[in-house]
């Protein structure tokens, strides 16, 4: 687990939206989503429920 990925997680929690968090972090939304999915797989838990707006 990398500290960078934990920062991504906290940014999404604060923004309550993956797209807005990606914009604030200056990274692409697909990259952020992929990093979060990898974190979920590493921890073995679902951190976010993804759905349409």
From TrEMBL:
<dbReference type="InterPro" id="IPR036388">
    <property type="entry name" value="WH-like_DNA-bd_sf"/>
</dbReference>
<comment type="similarity">
    <text>Belongs to the LysR transcriptional regulatory family.</text>
</comment>
<keyword id="KW-0238">DNA-binding</keyword>
<dbReference type="GO" id="GO:0032993">
    <property type="term" value="C:protein-DNA complex"/>
</dbReference>
<keyword id="KW-0805">Transcription regulation</keyword>
<dbReference type="InterPro" id="IPR000847">
    <property type="entry name" value="LysR_HTH_N"/>
</dbReference>
<feature type="domain" description="HTH lysR-type">
    <location>
        <begin position="1"/>
        <end position="53"/>
    </location>
</feature>
<dbReference type="GO" id="GO:0003677">
    <property type="term" value="F:DNA binding"/>
</dbReference>
<dbReference type="Pfam" id="PF00126">
    <property type="entry name" value="HTH_1"/>
</dbReference>
<keyword id="KW-0804">Transcription</keyword>
<protein>
    <recommendedName>
        <fullName>HTH lysR-type domain-containing protein</fullName>
    </recommendedName>
</protein>
<dbReference type="GO" id="GO:0003700">
    <property type="term" value="F:DNA-binding transcription factor activity"/>
</dbReference>
<dbReference type="InterPro" id="IPR036390">
    <property type="entry name" value="WH_DNA-bd_sf"/>
</dbReference>
């Amino acid at each position: 687990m990398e500290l960078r990925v934990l920062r991504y997680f906290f940014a999404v929690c604060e923004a309550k939206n993956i797209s807005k968090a990606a914009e604030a972090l200056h990274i692409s939304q697909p990259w952020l989503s992929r990093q979060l999915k990898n974190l979920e797989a590493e921890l073995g838990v679902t951190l976010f429920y993804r759905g349409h707006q």
